[in-house]
Amino acid sequence: MNNERPYLSIIIPAYNEQSRIADSLYKVKDYLSQQSYRSEIIVVDDGSRDLTTEVVKFIDIYGKETKEQEEGQLMENIKNVGKGFSIARGMIKASGDIVLFSDADLSTPIEEIEKLLPYFEQGFDVVIGSRKMADSEVEKKPWYRDAMSLIFNMAVRTLSVPGIKDTQCGFKAYRREAAQRIALLQRIYGFGFDVEHLYIARKQGFKIKEVAVKWEHMDGSKVDPIKDSLRMFTDLLKIRWLHRAM
Questions:
Q1: CATH number at residue 67
Q2: How confident is residue 60, by pLDDT bands cut at 50, 70 and 90?
Q3: How far out from the chain centre does Cα 34 lie?
Q4: Which keywords appear in this protein's UniProt record, sorted alphabetically (predicted)?
């Protein structure tokens, strides 16, 4: 591989994902190998207690030895800090012109990036996948996730970022400059970080575009309907306070 800077960086946060990280990485690597642009994958392990890191290392070693795929990057948090912290670390490390983060379960298929990329050519700085647009394709969403989403989005539109239908879809892309600026200003490291990213982006004058994507519920979600809902509402209040001087 040459030393040319990649066009696309993909960040995958992972916590105890040994059972599905291999399948997700193979899908991402296979997709990227078919593209004309150079890319990089950054897996950020958030203090997993299982074999997540060993699986990631094995896949990279195998791909490199067969000369089929470029070796990815693995970043390891010493302890479990939070998805938001992991993504911020990856954003600061990323060298691609466009930086995407995707959930480890690929609930939004990696191919959906093709719907987001054209909007960067139109001048947008942050392009986010959405499950709430008229053209969104959503499958198997549990009733409690729908209830959480409805109530939380109403609070988000009131307190933080009005006009955005779905702040929580785990499929968001940024220009590198925007990604790194937002990551450096980020203070929320739990599930409320998505809202903080968009709040900071608005405050910094970055242009945001929401795009309909495919999304399918995957078993094994780390979201606790009760505890994480309370944490997210608390984060909404923190965001305005933390960035009051922006």
A1: 3.90.550.10
A2: confident
A3: 22
A4: Endoplasmic reticulum, Glycosyltransferase, Membrane, Signal-anchor, Transferase, Transmembrane, Transmembrane helix
DSSP three-state, residue 130: strand
Residue 1 lies in a domain: no
Residue 45 lies in a domain: yes
- Decide the pairing of beta strands 39-45 and 73-76: parallel
Residue spans of alpha helices (H) in the chain:
21-33, 52-65, 83-93, 113-116, 118-121, 143-159, 176-185, 193-203, 227-242
Q: How far apart are CA 179 and CA 94, in angstroms?
A: 9
User: What's the rounded mean pLDDT across residues 154-180?
Assistant: 90
User: What one-letter code names the amino acid at 134?
Assistant: A
Position 237 in a domain: yes
Per the CB < 8 A criterion, the answer to whether 104 and 56 are in contact is no
The answer, yes or no, to whether residue 63 has pLDDT greater than 80, is no
Instruction: Write out the residue range of the structural domain in which residue 215 sits.
Output: 8-242
Identify the CA nearest to 30 among candidates 58, 3, 59.
59
Q: Does the residue 171 lie in any domain?
A: yes
Does position 66 have pLDDT exceeding 50, yes or no? no
Q: What percent of the chain has pLDDT over 90?
A: 68
Cα atoms found within 13 Å of the Cα of residue 169, Cβ hemisphere only: 29
Q: In this predicted model, what pLDDT tens digit does every residue of 109-138 receive, in sequence order?
A: 999 999 999 999 999 999 999 999 999 999
In order of 108, 218, 227, the CA distances from 45 in angstroms are 20, 19, 22
Domain total in the chain: 1
The tokens describing 233, both together, are 């509402």
